[in-house]
Amino acid sequence: MDINHSPVRFIVDPQAEISPDVRKEDKLVGWGEALYANSMRLVCAGVLQSLGSLEKAASVLWWCGYRVPPSYFPDGHEAENYLPADEEPLQFWVEAEAERIEQATKSIGFYMAARGQLLEEDT
Fold first, then answer.
1. What is the count of structural domains for the chain?
2. Pick from 38, 55, 57: which is nearest to 104 by CA?
3. Is 56 a domain residue?
4. Residue 59 sits in which domain range?
5. What are phi and psi of 41, to 5 degrees?
6. This prediction's pTM
7. Residues in Cβ contact with 87 at an 8 Å cutoff, skipping those fewer than 6 apart
8. Whole-angstrom distance, CA of residue 45 vs CA of residue 106
9. CA dihedral 40, 48, 60, 122 (to 10 degrees)
10. Using CA atoms, how far apart are residues 58 and 41, in angstroms rounded to an integer?
11. Which of 25, 87, 109, 117 is 20 to 30 A from 41 in CA distance terms?
């Protein structure tokens, strides 16, 4: 199968006149970002469940190749000055998302992702 890749378009100025196909692509970008962030939370939830703390969560994310999306930190935030390959932005992200990560340990998504990998008992 030959796939001709083309860049996805996203909305920078929501006030501009935008065609429906660009709106649809922008919606898919938002959906993809949300899934990516949720997968990061699930990884951190696994670290929390396994080790009892989030101190190593950023390192696990970093070693697995996760990066904080550049749009996550607003202008002027300390982490925006780091390179995407740096671990420090992930540390900021884990600290900022700590409450949501803890909530993720109680989610069905976490149970499904962790089953057979992190959970000791198979229920």
1. 1
2. 38
3. yes
4. 20-114
5. -65, -40
6. 0.80
7. 58, 59, 62
8. 9
9. -90
10. 11
11. 25
